Amino acid sequence: MERVIFHIDVNSAFLSWTAVKMLGEGHPDIRLVPSVVSGDPNDRRSIITAASIPAKKLGIKTAQPLSMAMRVCPTLVVVGGDWEWYKRCSEGFIEICRSYSPVLQQFSIDECFIDMTFRLYGKDPVEEATRLKDEIKGRLGFTVNVGIGSNKLLAKMASDFEKPDKVHTLLESEVQEKMWPLGVRDLLWVGKKTEEKLLSYGIRTIGDLANLGIESLSRLVGKKFAFQLHENANGRDNSPVETESAEAKSYSAERTFSKDLSELKDIDRALFNVACVVAHRIRRDSFRASTVSMFIKYKDFTVAQKQCQVPQPTDITAVILNEARRMLSEVWDGVTPIRQVGLGVSKLTHESYIQMSLFEDPKLEYYREWDRQYDERKAKAEDARMLTYERKKRPSGDSE
DNA sequence: TCTGGGGTCCTAGGACCC
DNA sequence: TCTGGGGTCCTAGGACCC
User: Fold this and answer.
1) What is the tens place of the pLDDT at every residue in A251-269?
2) What is the CATH number of domain A250-355+374-379?
3) CA–C1' distance A319–B11 (Å)?
4) Per CATH, which fold does A180-233 belong to?
5) Whether this model's pTM surpasses 0.90
């Protein structure tokens, strides 16, 4: 039987959510003017996190440098992000979606899939999707697009059609008419590099891709990816709506300096900061990591990276930091200016048993105590922040 | 114009084992 | 001296997503 999947996508999520918050504080609606969510306008490295539709009409795009957008539109309204608020908006919207179908997969903070196959009871999918979209708008004050498809891929492609506040369908029977004329770049998983490759072989549209032999495609992009692209271009995707959110496989943090740095003490301070952040997060989620990795990015954006295995899975900041420091000295010449530094951990386990080696470094106990105090300070700061938030107005849907 | 931050998955080559 | 094939783990690098 044919499945019915909805993909719900918040329109310009961070911008819409900021607009709702500002409206509540008596400000005008920034969705109606060229506006963006971004970092400090005085930092030349700030990039755009979200843009309003009037801003997009001027050619301003997500991930573009803010300085560039300001040149295009000097009157651009720039607002900062508010993660706590975004999380609340996200929770509100997911909750409403879940009330339409419990078979829900959250795909990101502002997107989810719901499987409506056994939920329509003969009702028209478009009417049901419209009811969902209008309920979100009415209760939470922001708009979404709903894509209706025979599978997740088609639903997601459909929600990307005309925006905002729209419902679109992309059923298997509509693939040739609605999807094949689109450029290859519009297909999920076709990014800049793959598009370039395909264009150089004259493959311009999703239809071209769909009708290309799998052997030729394999030579271009590798066997596995070729198979997936071929299936997707033909509108096929049998992946289920996953209701269980998968556990994290890695954690990482990175810092970009406001100007490139070449002093070891500066790089090291950043490394220390990201090590604290990453180690804190794995402790919070009761993980230990066996692999530590670090990277540096130079001004031309080339990356040098190193990874290593630690003898015992660890969640100790100092252990992680020391590995990262050692790898930094191996990967960096100590002279070339560095734009960004990052640190990550992977190969995670929930192993709580710590094998006590006779030769265990006696400093480890001291390190653990340091971490415990760090976590405590973090928890206190977090409580204080949540408290100030409780006093603020929640998205209107939550306040009943 | 000059590019953030946080993830997932894949590939290819080398080491090492049987 | 030169010769298999298969499997697993590790590392570096690259592509994509939001």
Assistant:
1) 999 999 999 999 999 999 9
2) 3.30.1490.100
3) 30
4) DNA polymerase; domain 1 (1.10.150)
5) yes
